[in-house]
């Protein structure tokens, strides 16, 4: 709570309250006329990052919370990945998945925290945090704020 979240317009539309309350919500859309209550709509990743850097209060962090389109465009900039891995047996239904978290080079990260959780029904899951140790030319941090992908 209290941090800044950035997400694509399609992810916002899946949220029951059409925002994450108690956080600054930055929504990416190419629609220049789009207005969403209690959210700031921006038209590019660069504009989102500039806006986040401008409004950031001490201690605030920026969380990129998806979806797939946004992860693909920003993952190379993230200093930390906070992943929840859900183990699902798809039994031949993998063709029903249309969006994926991008592949990333694990050699560029250290694993900082792993937490295992009891199975929830038929699903096992764990959380894992990767902290970036290697920034390549394309992944030089452009912000002086912690920038996480969730
Ligand atoms: N499992 C998870 O952790 C997780 C997390 C988040 C989301 N999701 C799921 O992922 C799905 C949505 O992901 P998605 O990849 O389809 O969509 P998305 O990334 O949430 O949103 C895509 C939209 O963002 C806007 N956009 C993308 N790049 C932009 C750019 N460079 N500049 C300006 N606007 C840009 C466009 O909006 P306009 O069309 O308005 O121009 C585009 O249609 C949902 O089903 C959601 O539930 C899963």
The assigned structural class equals alpha/beta
Fourth-tier CATH superfamily name: Dihydrofolate Reductase, subunit A
Let me know the number of strands: 8
CATH class: Alpha Beta
Q: What is the count of distinct domains?
A: 1
Bound molecules: NADP nicotinamide-adenine-dinucleotide phosphate
Number of discrete helical segments: 3
| Mean pLDDT rating | 89
Principal-axis shape equals globular
Radius of gyration: 16 Å
**Share of residues in helices:** 10-25%
Spell the H/E element sequence: EHEEHEHEEEE
* CATH topology (level 3) name: Dihydrofolate Reductase, subunit A
Instruction: Kindly estimate the percentage of residues that lie in beta strands according to DSSP.
Output: 25-35%
CATH architectural label: 3-Layer(aba) Sandwich
Fold and architecture overview:
The protein has helices at 9-12, 45-55, 68-74, and strands spanning 4-8, 24-28, 40-42, 62-64, 80-87, 109-120, 123-132, 147-149. A hairpin with a 2-residue loop joins β6 (109-120) and β7 (123-132). The chain has an eight-stranded mixed sheet with strand order 3-2-1-4-8-5-7-6. The chain has 150 residues and is an alpha/beta fold. The protein binds NADP nicotinamide-adenine-dinucleotide phosphate (NAP).
């Amino acid at each position: 709570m209290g941090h800044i979240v950035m997400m694509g317009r399609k992810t916002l539309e899946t949220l029951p309250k059409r925002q994450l309350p108690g956080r600054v919500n930055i929504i990416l859309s190419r629609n220049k006329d789009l207005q969403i209550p209690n959210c700031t709509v921006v038209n590019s990743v660069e504009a989102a990052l500039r806006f986040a850097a401008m409004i950031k209060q001490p201690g605030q962090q920026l969380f990129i919370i998806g979806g797939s389109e946004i992860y693909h465009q920003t993952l190379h900039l993230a200093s930390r990945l906070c992943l929840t891995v859900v183990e699902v047996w798809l039994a031949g239904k993998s063709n029903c998945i249309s969006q994926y978290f991008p592949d990333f080079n694990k050699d560029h990260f250290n694993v900082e925290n792993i937490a295992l959780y009891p199975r929830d029904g038929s699903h096992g899951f764990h959380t894992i945090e990767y902290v970036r140790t290697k920034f390549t030319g394309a992944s030089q941090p452009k912000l002086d704020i912690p920038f996480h992908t969730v």
